[in-house]
Amino acid sequence: MNYQQRLDRTFFALVDPTRRAILAQLQRSSASVGQLAEPFAIKLPAVMKHLDVLADAGLISRKKSGRTVTVRLRALPLRQAMAWLSRYERFWSGSLDRLAAYAEREETDSHSEEG
Amino acid sequence: MTSLTLVRRIKARPSIVFDALTTADGMVQWWGPDNGPVLIAESDPRKGGSFRVRFRKIDDGTEYETIGKFLDFIRPERVVMSWRWKDGIVDPGESRVEIVLRPVSEGTEITLLHSLLHDEESRSSHEAGWMGALDKLVARFPEAADDAVSGPPVPPGRSVPPALVS
After folding, report:
1. Tens digits of per-residue pLDDT, B41-90?
2. B2 neighbourhood in chain A, CB within 8 Å
3. Which of B11, B16, B82 is most worth mutating to test chain A (most A CB atoms within 10 A of its CB)?
4. Does the N-terminal or the C-terminal CB of chain B have fewer CB atoms within 10 Å?
């Protein structure tokens, strides 16, 4: 998978509020699948599907010991997605400040030309 | 959070804001995250037209160049640009910037959406002669080379994906 595809998967995984809530819970500590399912009004198979999406995006790892599957957060894809977002946020917040200042000057100038 | 969305209100008419966004005369005034100079601004402001902007960041003096194409162009309502960094140094992927302009009482409200460029658009823009086909990007980008615009430039020796320009 290349960089773009990895980012795409990460962003896709993060669209869903249930998956974001699962990640938020895992940020506090690793948990079993049953513990993760608890706060949600959905059935275990549905939770498993969400976990598959998160695992595909590399956002979690699952480890089986006996009858318990322990789920852990893997931070790298999330960091990459955050870096992508903050990079463009910095670019655009600076650029749009200057764009606004320039367009507003142009607007004022066009009035004074008319007047 | 599939993408970055920013909303701004500007005290100027949509046509003025649109031209500021899309023409070389406009781009040279604002392109770049800080007050560093824009060194080159070229634009062919129409659907299918290309743009190229080179700027220098003021804090570390590094130069960056962005290249793209107007995928959609409806003056003064909406513009969609493809976007990539020359040499892939900042971000090896291709992305998409959509800006919608809405007239409001004090001027214009712009909504900017910066997201990854999806395959379909990438393909169609490629067919239209755009040279940024992502499938040419064979080299896997190193995991660590993930610094933002403000980060250090890629040091010599570190592998950088080949330029997409063929």
Report:
1. 999 999 999 999 999 999 889 999 999 999 999 999 999 999 999 987 77
2. 11-12, 14-15
3. B16
4. C
